[in-house]
Design goal:
The complex is a heterotetramer, with two copies of chain A (about 140 residues) and two copies of chain B (about 80 residues).
Chain A (H helix, E strand, L loop, with lengths): L3 E2 L5 H8 L6 E8 L6 E8 L1 H18 L4 E7 L1 E4 L3 E9 L2 H18 L2 E7 L4 E4 L5 E3 L6
Parallel strand pairs in A: 1-4
Antiparallel strand pairs in A: 2-6, 3-5, 3-7, 4-6, 7-8, 8-9
Chain B lengths: L1 E7 L1 H7 L3 E6 L5 H11 L11 E4 L2 E3 L10 E5 L6
Parallel strand pairs in B: 1-5
Antiparallel strand pairs in B: 1-2, 3-4, 3-5
Classes of the chains: A alpha+beta (about 140), B alpha+beta (about 80).
């Protein structure tokens, strides 16, 4: 499964990768495009080669920490409408504590490490880059 | 001398107007030296923040990391994946 | 949505209940019938009226603790084959920490409080009641 | 006197051979008194553990909880939902 996709994400495809009769607990995280006021959609872009490398490293780290767990991740790129998923992570394990922990680990690492950026598109036609440190900056303008 | 490819993403690509630039730096130069060279040769790069996030060959690194010939340096705006 | 069902559980039906453009993070937990040696399937039975009442109370508690989160739960009853889901919980919230916490809270309460029992069916035709305290007891035999 | 409905589930229903039994206990009796009465009147109930999990009107309760006329007491084997 390609970890980066431009198509809608389906939870089932991730579940198929991680689930097995030996792994009785599965934790899934879905991040969906949120309506922050006047946002109509979000354009996601990535440093593709590095994003793929980071995802591989994160999943390897999860495997080392929770050897019985199996984790899969898919991040969608391009224009994503309100309410649709930008990311899905599925972690299956024999015991639920491991499934929750592995899933949570991966989403926290995604937020910290994945070279992916979002540009919010507004109803008035403007666009702003999202800076999770709190500031948003209009597309194309200088640093403020 | 080391030839280094520099890549710009998201807002930084908008600031510089380019996706990629090639710069030459002395042997034993650091990512920070690459950044200084970029500011001299790419006009829009003067608007980059003083200490942007950087990656070297697909891994995040500190700005004092050494580069070598053929390396790829990427300048990354604040990450907002997920 | 009926919280008890005899049909296969679909994650989508739970997602539809909890997701909205204001809630950007969704955590799902799936419990599936695990292959413990020679088990071919598990027969789930419930004290239906109390199970429904407990589920309502748990979801009310989750709403009180995480007012911005919305949580849904479905437990399947009857004979469930290996690998299929016996329970699904979905929690959506504006922020992912709340979605994870609410989902985890509900599954832990389910394990602690829900009046549901499982009987493992074995390849040799025998059946054993599952006692999570560790002992399993053959169906119909006296306490040991 | 209080008339109480007693329900048996899962393995306890197998032990007693019944799903429901009606018992009469004195006013101010407890769930434990109901349980004692059940052991006297339902032959298979002698195999119930000394202190099973119990619910009163759809809520888990301690065995010293008082019952009243028309209540429903349920005897619950160790829970294994999820």
């Amino acid at each position: 499964m390609n970890p980066l996709t431009r198509d809608p994400i389906t939870v089932e495809s991730l579940l198929r990768v991680v689930q097995s009769p030996e792994r009785g607990g599965t934790c899934v995280f879905l991040g969906t495009v949120r309506n922050d006021g006047d946002v109509t959609g979000i354009e996601y872009s990535a440093y593709d080669e590095m994003a793929v490398a980071e995802i591989t490293r994160m999943l390897d780290e999860a495997r080392e920490r929770w050897p019985e767990a199996r984790v899969a991740l898919q991040h969608r790129l391009g224009l994503i409408p309100l309410g649709e998923a930008s990311i899905a992570i599925a972690a299956a394990a024999p015991h639920r504590a491991d499934a929750f922990a592995a899933c949570r680990y991966v989403i926290e690492e995604v937020k910290r490490r994945l070279p992916i950026w979002k540009k919010e598109l507004h109803t008035d036609g403007t666009a702003t880059w999202v800076d999770p440190s709190g500031k948003t900056v209009a597309g194309g303008l200088r640093d403020r | 001398m080391a030839q280094v490819t520099v890549r710009f993403f998201a807002r930084y690509a908008e600031l510089t107007g380019c996706d990629t630039a090639a710069v030459a730096v002395p042997a034993a130069a650091t990512v920070n030296d690459v950044l200084d060279r970029v500011r001299e040769t790419v006009p829009g790069a003067r608007s980059l923040p003083p200490r942007p996030l950087a990656a070297l060959n697909l891994r995040q690194v500190k700005l004092d990391t050494r580069v070598k010939d053929g390396d790829e340096v990427a300048l990354l705006p604040p990450l907002s994946g997920g």
